[in-house]
Amino acid sequence: MNKFYHSVYLDEDKCGGCFTCLKRCPTQAIRIRDRRAFIIPEFCIDCGECARHCPHHAKRCRRDSFTSAREDFSYLVALPAPALYSQFNHMDDVNIILSAILLTGFDDVFEVSAGAELVSEASHKYIADHPEQWPLISTACPTIERLIRVRFPNLIPHLLPILPPMEVAAKLARDRVIAKTGLPSEQIGIVFISPCPSKVAFISAPMGLAKSNVDRVIAIKDYYPLLLSHMKDAERDTKPLSASGSLGKGWAVSGGEAAGIHSNEYLAADGIENVIRVLEDIEDEKFEPGLQFVELNSCSAGCVGGVLTVENAYLSKTKMLRINRGEPFLKTDSSQLEHHSLADFAWSEPVKYEPVYSLGETIFESMENMEKVSQITDALPGLDCGCCGAPTCKALANDIVMANRKASIEDCIFLEKDQNERSIL
In this predicted model, what pLDDT tens digit does every residue of 38-70 receive, in sequence order? Predict the structure, then answer.
């Protein structure tokens, strides 16, 4: 399995070499060479920031289509992300959306928000039982897991070792269908309706388990027009399908997950730049002892701000809060599990540090190359302008040392300008 599988990719024919993505990438995974961007795959964490901001729509996100999923499986189960509920105007009853999902061609639907309520219960118990790991960091967002895995290895022991709601819901949905229909597992397709590209990457290269329970991932923005066309029929014949309360649905917005741990000693941050600041502060031990839980969402406002959604993130957040006003706090609990315990939703595989920023195969080679990087960086102007095609002067120095990145010191236009001026004089 490719641990660096990515949903985000570059459409070279559309790239204008405009440097926008270069400055927006939080892990310095993008370079501009010969007026075209390219992505250093091992640095990419599939946050989708480049796709969100690219004015030429050259950054794309791989995902599956509903049509192909329908053709590949005998029985299709939809797993709607809670963020889907916030994409519609004047929507107070999510049962209308769930009924419309069945009208589009799915055979069954299982709410990810129901899985979220079970994960909340498991998280609450684990956090209370493991104060030695405080603060525990949420693992619901695959982008955050990837970021910590490559950039903050000291924080890996603080990751909450519980599967994300998508995986829990998929596991329960498959078992329910097998019990109801008797179909073999391979004929059952579990399809997650996703707000972001990181979930696509997760099912191909999961963290915390060997193989994902999800078979396909389709984007909210792709599925939305089809779903919208069935809303009126669903409103006329609405089925009581919702199995989650405001707690599970609240995971769609920043702070929603933290509400389920029943503690005031938490921190919630959203937006990848804010997340990085929080992780740096945790690593530097800037928080007072007693902080129990940290909820981090790479997208602004939470999952409702995912790049594969259709609605404005903050308007979606308001809609989600309105939907939750009439909901009971909790509908799902562990007593409803027939063949599972909460322990079944724990990690089965460890998450390991990936030293993608290493400058050598051995510590001696890395130290030698670090010295070279330091010398080159001192020779550069330190403006971090990005005109060389790298996001910072140090990144350019790294690229020069790592010869496979097609960089040279002549890429710095300021050094070239100085040399030209001296030659004229």
Answer: 999 999 999 999 999 999 999 999 999 999 999
Report which of 168, 173, 172, 194 is spatially closest to residue 252, judged by C-alpha positions: 194
Strand, coil or helix: what is 365? helix
Amino acid sitting at position 99: S
DSSP three-state, residue 147: helix
- Least Cα distance to 117 among 357, 342, 297, 351 occurs for 342
- With contact defined as beta carbons under 8 Å apart, do 73 and 189 qualify? yes
Measure the CA dihedral 139/49/192/147, to 10°. Answer: -20
As given in the structure block, the two tokens for residue 302 are 């939470």
| pLDDT at 425 exceeding the cut of 50 | no
Using the 8-state DSSP alphabet, how is residue 346 labeled?
B
Indicate the SS3 state at residue 267. Answer: strand
Q: Give the mean model confidence (pLDDT) for residues 294-308.
A: 96
Q: What angle do CA 85, 90, 93 make, to 5 degrees?
A: 55
Report how far residue 198's alpha carbon sits from residue 48's, in angstroms, rounded to the nearest whole number.
Answer: 8
Q: What does the block give as tokens for 153?
A: 């290895």
Give the other-Cβ count within 10 Å of 110's Cβ. 22
What is the residue whose two structure tokens read 């991932």?
217
Rounded to two decimals, the pTM is 0.92
